[in-house]
Input
Amino acid sequence: MDTTPLVPGDRAWRTAERARLIGFAERSVVSSGGFAWLDDLGAPDASQPLHLWINARMTHIFGLEAIHAESRQARSIAASGIDALGRLFEDRRHGGWYEAVAPDGTPVEASKAAYGHAFVVLAAATGTAAGIPGARDLLGRALDVVQRRFWEPATGTVRERYLGADWRGEEPYRGANANMHTVEALLTAAAALGDRSLARDALRIAERVVDGPARQAGWRVVEHFDREWRPVLDFGAEDPGDHFRPYGLTIGHWLEWSRLLLAIDAALDEPPAWLAEGAAALFANGYGLGWPEPTSIGCPYTVDWDNRPVVEARLFWVTAEGILAADALARRTGSGRARDAASRLWAEVDRYFCDREAGGWHSELAPDGTPASSVWSGKPDSYHAYQACLFPDLPVGLGLRPGDTSTSRKS
Output
């Protein structure tokens, strides 16, 4: 029996961690359909409704597990997730998907947001690649809603939110976050369908959000805009630790955009040179500012416009996206610094974020590395953690199968 210790982040460690994360995620399965928000101990949080973003993201990771582990159990759970998205969350009267519902499908939050719809596309695209029944039809409906209700051809971006279930009351706000996840969703759909036009739409979003405002801000992603895509620099100042729209700059999104720019680069036959330039610059800024010292633990959630920390919480998804950006950049460019960064961040995950007692990863740490809950409570989903463990085994980009180059120009 081989008793050699596993090295955090190597293939054997990541394979074992994927299995542990999937086992933890199975606790969220609701018998009547959907996925529950889990608390710190991994039990369903009865105070929370069923959230669209959680249900779609969990369906996505079980779909990935069905593909890559050839797991019948994961396939069955992914199929139940596809069913729940259509049966519980979909608004059959007005179209689109509710943001949150009760276990019986009664709407709790009836607004329609691009963020949640992006994850429906993501889940359905992964389900399509996995051959889950109903996923292809769901993907078609979701892409149609995104195209008709959210896509703005003039700007090449998506609208943020409609306040009413009947698509009335459009919010006069534009956000980088919803557009970023729409990029991920479009690229995954492009891979699942072999439709490169979706990758070109993803490029248009990146051009608007990154090649313009982020470049002008010294390769720092500007998060908040008005309807005309003018930056709103003081947005969120009254609630700087908001889950989805915090004040200032969110370093984790610089890292997430870095790996998505490389995914766009891989999906296009003739990608513009700025994609690789931007990916390298965003990673360098995010990693350099987030982990400035060898002893730094985690990365501050947000900073102000002078790069001073605003919310000091260390969130697990930021480290996960740092790993993915570093891995993709190291493989795409051969960067030794990025390779070293990935190793360092894996060690951080292993020592501080992995919860070996209750399961999953701690969602948040204090600056000293101890578990905290100033921004997030519980362990809502395993999407970022699972992808961090899987994607280094895939071609650079968002290919859904090992070695799949149907929409990927290079590995």
Notes: The radius of gyration is 20 Å. The first helix runs from residue 11 to 25. DSSP finds twelve helices and 13 strands in the chain. The longest strand covers residues 309-315.
